[in-house]
Amino acid sequence: MPSLEDIQRALQRCLAAEPPQASRLSADASALATVYAEMNYFRTAERRLEGLPEKQRDAFLRWAEPQQ
Description:
This protein is mostly helical. It has one domain. Helix content is 57%, strand content 0%. The protein is built from three helices and no strands. It has helices at 4-17, 27-41, 54-63. Helix 1 (4-17) packs antiparallel against helix 2 (27-41) and helix 2 (27-41) crosses helix 3. The chain is globular and about 30 Å long.
């Protein structure tokens, strides 16, 4: 289950690799930002990976730090 901090780190990695162009986020950054915003709004500490829409889940898996 990714925590809010996990989502934030994935979003930061994505933004570092794919900076906004003309004030627009990449598709992955937008998907991760949506998850991050929802978790903040609903004060959710963790989200089930299986409960995320496919686009958001795939973006997180692409940009999350590898598990040790």
